[in-house]
Every structure is written in structure tokens, then in C-alpha cells.
## 1
Amino acid sequence: MSGYTSDPRIRWTEWLPWLAAIAFFFAMPEYLSLGARVLIYILFALSLDLILGYAGIITLGHSAFFGLGAYTAGILGAKYGITDPFLQVIAAAAMAALLGIATGAVILRTKALTLLMLTLAITSILLEIANKATALTGGADGLSGVKTDPILGLFRFDIFGKTAFIYCLLVLFLGWLLVRRLIYSPYGAMLTGIRENTARMHAVGAPVYWRLVLVYTLSATLAGVAGALLTQVNQFVGLNVLGLEPSGDILVMLILGGVGRLYGAFVGPVIYLIAQDYLAKQYPEYWYFGIGLLLIVVVLFARGGILGIVDKIGAPWLQALSRHRSSAKASAR
């Protein structure tokens, strides 16, 4: 489902995740809070897939944008009385975009291990700033008392997660439309070309550096929006949104689903967070062992992630269906 195509129309199979989300809303109302969290991390994973899966930018610091967006929304709602949810999201997106273009303009001149270490350094610096600026961020205790107005003045965030789920689903849908439109465009084809052979893209005169800075900034913006959503849903933000751990978690989610496949960002967080929720209840001290074992199995036996397995199983059926359609058209002629 990834890559540039001359026919970017949405196929019927691409509506299945959205239909599943709507069915989940009605079928499992007691899990809507968990569902909202899953939707937020899908958007976060989607932002990472944009730079890792399509542009080939390796990073361990994507939580810098996620955390900055989360703290921006939290500080506005708790310290400055700006409680409109849309203003909080816009401010979070703007701050993450500014950080994205400022850091991307520097670190994207490097590559490989240097790039990886610089991305990690950026999120580590932000983590330390958030830890020390206790008057603004709450430090290690976190920032509580974050206030968010009802959506459109009508739909208040409640403990059951109904408003949160629908709100996050709509924002995710808009983010998905943006990312999909981008990757199924000539610009998306250029990103894939940069990932596959940077030297050749330079040879044909493509502005490689600025294309990477642009996609890095867009990815940062989406991650900032995801962070703001998490703060609004929880009405709290802590240091756990920054540092290596959230960056590692989202990378694991993406690998589980399938890197560079667009919908791998949908599958991975669902599997990861459901497994985390179950294992943490059953084995609170060893749940990371189960996640690690799952990741090892996927890496060893499903190089394309879970979607890679689905493709291998479904490919013969799709080929048979295609042959059937071709023979039917030939008979009709």
C-alpha cells in the first residue's frame, strides 16, 4: 500500500481500519480510553513512518517533537489559561514544526551513526530542560491541572473516553489523509528515490537536502499534534513523553506493523498497546520480556512486519482474483 502511483484514489480496503474503529466505539465502550491512546500512538507512528519508512531518516529522538507538543498543550492549559483544544493543538504543532526545521536543518547534513546520535541528543536535552524547569513543567512530578474546554463547546472530555476517542479518530483521519496524499504524489516518489539511492537523486538535480528538511518538519508537526492529544486526553503530562524510551517504543510499534507501508503505523500500535495492557496485568514485572519476544519473532520471521505476513498470505488470493477478472473480461469480448 505504499509508494507513488499514478492512481492515488482510495481503495475500498483502505476504509477497513476506519470501519473497525467505528465498530470498536460501539462494541467496546469500556475500552474507549485505551482506544483513544491507541489512536494517538497511531498518529505518532505515522509521523515516524513518514521519515523512516519513506525518506530513510533514521532517528532515536522522535519523542522530542511528541514531548514538546505535549508540554506545549499542557503549559497553555495549566499555566496560561488557554483552554481551547484547537488552539492548544495548533500551538503544539507550531512549536514542534519550529523545532523540526531548526534541528533538521543542522542534523540532516549528517548521516548514519552521527545522525542517530544527534537525534538522541536533542531529545535528551529537552528531557533535561523539562526536568529542571519545574516552575513551568512540574519537573519530575509532572504537570497536572491541565484544562481543556469541551470540543466545539459541546463535547466534554469524560472518564469514559467517548469524546476523546471520536476526537482522536477525527484528528488521525486528517493526519492520514495528509500523509497518504503526500506519499502518493511525485514528492513521495522523490522521497522514496532519496531513500533508495541518494547519489542518483543528486545526479538528476533533485534538491535532496531541502526535501529532507521539509519532510522532517512535517513529521515533527504530526508528532507534536499527537503529543498535544495525549495531554488533552490525560489532562496531565510528565517526563515519560520525552527521552529514549518513548522513541524506542514507537520504533518498536512501527517495526511490528511494517516500516514504509503506511498501514504498518496502524497495525503496530494496536498490537503493541494491547499486548502491553494484557501482559502488564498478567505479568507486571516481566511484561517487557513478552514484548521483546514478540519483536524478535517478527524481525526473524516477518521482515516486512505483520503486514508483510498479511501480504504473503493474501498475495495468492489477489493474483487469483486478478486472473479471474482478466478471463472474465476476455470472455466478455
## 2
Amino acid sequence: MTMTATTINAHKILEAGRQTIIAESEALSFLAASLDEKFTAAVELLATQNSRIIVSGIGKSGHVARKIAATLASVGQPAFFVHPAEASHGDLGMITPQDRLLLLSHSGETAELKSMLDYSRRFHIPLVAITAKENSNLASVADVTLCYPIVPEACPMGLAPTTSTAMMLALGDALAIATLHTRSFSPTDFRTFHPGGNLGKQLSRVRDFMHTGDRLPVVLKGTLMKECLIKMSYFGFGCVAIVDEDGLMSGVITDGDLRRHMHTELLNDAVETVMNPTPTMIAADILMAEALAIMQEKSITSLFISAHNKPIGILHIHDCLRAGII
């Protein structure tokens, strides 16, 4: 089969893309193997209680620095990016002696970082450097230097920052995740910093969407079914909780229970003759996604939320829609 010029060109494009990814993945493998006690020292210095991390760099290093600052902030470590050029024109005032500096430079000789280096030494602000050059000016000034391996860039001319920036970014991610492990950071904390988008939806808790108080369908044991039906119809959840005089859960009546117990004298029966005495109940702090999974597994559309065996709320499958997890 004869290959056309278009086919040959497409093949070269795909091969270039694959080789770039392979080159960067190999560089990351070298980087992972190179981590040592300096990485631990960097995390311990950056993760100091009540300190902020100021991240900076210029050019491609600056773009990576912005992402690292955002990642640190997302895992509960206060961090922000300061542009090195703006720093020398007043933004140094954003940095306090209680902060920590994380500076990025491939060569370690970036002139624009000089004002931040001088400022850090003058006011004894701890400094971590990420660079490829162990003998650079930046490395000599920093309290801790993380050097990534010098490997060829994926660019065929060896000029465009590719493997180097990939390693910079990976080091930043590694610092952020390692910093997370130094504190008690839970999924609930994560949602605090990610209330929007899919992450926020995935981490929504039942307590944020359940119906409580006057919206909770509850009747006492001994209540006649004719009164119970009125309450079920009023609330519209298709179920009602049955409690004893102490407010403890005795059972649940659903639309399905009504159908299973249908007879001519049903309205005059007491609720306990119809109720399911072992209903499925959940806690308020579980994820909405978990609650939806339980509904699907049990083929039900509502769940009562309990605390100390007392109903405190109800969740309907429509609330899962409202939470955006369906």
C-alpha cells in the first residue's frame, strides 16, 4: 500500500507526540529516583505551622510556579504567586518574615529573582529553591535546594522547556502532597477549598441537603393509618418515620408498605401494624454519592438520617439531583 504525503505527515505528528510524552515520563522516573533527604527537609521547612508559602519564577518557571501555588492552596497550605519583576517594585511588601519562599529557576541564575533573594537573606526568610544547577547562585543562597536531573528537552532542538518544566511541576506536586501528609487534612477540608465544580459535588455531604425540622415526616406509634396517610401526602416524600414517646425510631412506612398491607380496614389500623421495623438509615456526615448508592442498591427513593437512633432528617433522590451527583 502506497502511503500518501498526508499519511506520512500524520504519522510524524503522532510519533512526535508520543516521543515527547516518553521523554517526559523517563525524566520523571529519573526525578523520582533522585529524591533524598533534601526533599524531606524542604517539606519540613515549607510546612511550618501558620506560615504562607510565596512561590515565584519567571518565564516558563513562572507559569509552573503559579500552578504550584494553586495546588498548595488547594490542599490547605496558604500559598500565592508573586511575580519577581513586580516584587522589586513594591510587591516585596507582601512577604513577611513568617513566610516561606519557594523559588523556581532552571539555570539558577535568573536576574529577576535577585531582589527576592536579597530580601529573603536580609529578613531571614527561609528559602527553598527548585533548579537544575546545583552550583548556581540560587542554590548557594537557598536554605534547601531541590535539584532535578539534567536530561535532554523533548524539543528536537533541545531548546523549548519541556522535560525540565515537567520535572519542576512534578516536584511542586510532590511537595504539595507531602505537605498535606504533615497535617490532618480530610475530604471535608478539601471540599471547603473546592465548593464549586465536580469536586465540590463529589464531596457534598448529606447534612448539606437533608430536610429537617418542620419538613421531617414523623408520627407517633399508635397513630391510625388514616392520619398517617394525611401526613405522608402532605410532605410528599412517599414515606413517614414512626417514633416512640422518646423520639426513638421504631420503623418506617413507605408507599410500598401501603400496597403490601392494603385491605378494607387499613385506615383504622395502627401504624405499627404496617411499618417496616428495620428501615435503612444513614448518618448525616456521609457523602451524597454514598447515599445515592444506597438508594440504588435498596431500590428506594428516600432515606432517613438518624443520630442516636432518632430521626433528624430525610433525603430524597431529588436532593441528589439538586446536589448534581446524578
## 3
Amino acid sequence: MFILLWSGGFTALKAGLAYAEPITYLALRYGMVLAVLLPLFLVIRPPLPRNLVEWLHQGVIGILVQTLYFGLVYVAMKLGVSAGLQALIVSLQPILVGILAPRMVHERVGLAQWVGLGLGILGAALVIMARSSVDAASGAGILCSFGALFGMTVGTLYEKRFGVAQHPVTSNLVQYAVGFAAVLPLAWVIEDMRVFWTGPMIAALIYLAIGNSLVAVTLLLAMIRRGEASRVSALFFLVPPTAAMIAWLLIGESMPPIAWSGMALAAAGVGIANRCLPHAREG
């Protein structure tokens, strides 16, 4: 479910950004998420973090994932980085997690898992390159894409090491409030905040807010807390192939034969990485 919802966000984002600037659209997305969460919070009244440290951990995760990752992805898009190039850069995330996990979250990454991770990134790259979706971009845009990679990588490891299980309404409310507070002033400064309210724009916004932000991100954080960070991160290799397949089915984007081969290779890599990954050591 996570792979499908997360991957579908690329097609929805492409549709939505035809009617609003990137950071303005991201602020609208977070505003809609908060509009859903606030009434739920008042009705359900879920437990709050027990102390200042738990509040701070939720805030840091919000900064790393909602602000750095999503914010810099959207800024990179504004600066001319294609969705394909961004996907290729962010596909490095499982590799970085595999490198950093032994030191930060006490997970041992074995040779067989590295083989799976290598096959995964090769398959993802084949899909992206086969669809001719990697093009030239500004240095600043590429820097933002690598900043987004940093945000998601550190956010994954931070959640694994310091994340404390909270009610999903509480954790999402804190994290998206932090993201909204960060991106709204940025949109005010660098964009004119003009929005064309059309049916496709609103439909894409609803999908991104509910399916991508609320459901998919909640699933991601839950998987990280309950499993190995390396195992969960390997799933990101399946995002470019799945996003390409969704775009092929829904909006008729090309899917050359080599892209199907890349999809199979990425799936095999994820399967090897998950099957061969040992359990995390207690640290």
C-alpha cells in the first residue's frame, strides 16, 4: 500500500503543479492535512507526547521529512530538476541508509543485502533512463535534490533511533504543523502564491494530502519503528518503477521494454535485500 500511494504522488504532483507554483502547492497540501487532522484531534483527543524530549523528537522528524525532503524536492522542481533526475538522486537513499545504519541504529548490513541494494538501484536507474526523464538542470536545483536525499535519509535513521510510538493523529499533527510553518513563509517570499482552482488541481491536492501525506507517511514511519531501517529503505527502489507504471496506465506516458526489465530488476533487488537482511542488533 505504501509503494502504491507514495508512487502515485508523482503523477498527482505533475498534474497539480500545472496550476500552482511548487512551494505554494506544498503549503496548500500541508494546510489541507492540518484541516483534516485538527477536527480529528478534537474529537478523538489522542494522548500527547509525555515530555519535552518526545515533543522535540516529533518536531525534528517534521523538519527532516516534511520541510527538508518535501520542501527541497519542490524547490528543486521549481529550479528545473526533472522528476526523473530527482527520483534517481533520491533512489540513493537505501544505499546511504545501508552505509550509516551500522553506526547510527546498530544494524549490520551483510554482503547479500548489498547485492540486493545494488540490483535495486540499477533497476530503478534503468526505468528512469529508459523513459528519457533525466535531463540537464541547474547546479542549485541538483543541490536541492541532494538536500532532499539528506533529509529523508537522516529522517529515516532519526525515526528509527529516537522515534517513540505516538498516536498517528498526534504525530502527524505535530510534524505537519512544523512543515506548514516552514514552507508557508518560503512560498510568501519566493513565489507570488497564485493558484488556479480547477478540478484536476483540487483532485491532485486531495490525493497528495490524504493518500500521500496522511496514509503513506504514516505507514512509512510505522514500518521504520517496527522493522530495520535498511529493510524499509530498500522499498524506495520500487518507487520509480511503480510511478512509471502508474503514469503509463493513467496518463499514457511511454514505458519502453527496457523499463519493464528495470522494474523486474528492482523488484528482485528489493526481494534479495529483504530476505537476506539480518535482524537489527540490540544496541
